Each structure stands twice: as C-alpha cells, then as structure tokens.
Amino acid sequence: MAIPGRGRAHPSSDTSAAHARDSRPHRHPGFWPDPAGFDPRRFLPGGAADTATRHRYAFIPFGGGRRACIGASFAELETVLVLATMARRFRLELTARGMPPPRAQVTLRPGRGLPMRLRHR
User: Fold this and answer.
1) What is the biggest distance separating any 2 CA atoms in the chain, rounded to whole angstroms?
2) Strand 116-120 relative to strand 102-104: parallel, antiparallel, unpaired?
C-alpha cells in the first residue's frame, strides 16, 4: 500500500508509524506578538497566553481535545519544580549564540541541543 504525500508515494507496512506534531500555532503572528521571540511573560495573567483570553488551541504543547496527553498536568508541575529548584541554586546562561533551529520529533526540540553553563548563586 502507498500513502500519498506531496506528489509522491511512500511505502508503508504493518510496522510503519506516523507521528504528526504541528507547532505552527505556537509561532503564528495572529496569536502571538513577536511569535519567534522568547518571552515567558506571555504566560503570566493578562499576557498573550493567558488562558482566559487566548484561543484554546493557540498553545498545545500536550495536544488537545480527546487525544490530549494524560500526563500533561504532571509534566507541567514537574517542569516548574525542577526549574525552580535549579534556578534557586544556579544561574543559567546560554553558551551558544542565537536561537537553535527547532527539530520536530514527537516533541519539538532544539536542533543542536541547548548548551548552557550553570553558575552557583
């Protein structure tokens, strides 16, 4: 069986798997001022990502609807706890210049890693 895609056929088998990850809404100028910029303040109350004012699917790091990740709440809590613990003890500094290109896998990741230096506070 062949799966059509952009004008060419891709072979498939019983062991094939397809993953789709659409991060376009996360960088859409209609949803975000300065969509490519790093601005954690957008997630504060009243910011562009405030759940009271933004479009429901403008930010979907764990999917949405019936197929949303069941571990999303735990992952968000764990992320905050780990980062808060690290930031209390260390100052995080990027060692590479510029924004790393994104690499789409099952999740969106920095394409060349994210080299950082940790300095004791």
Assistant:
1) 59
2) unpaired
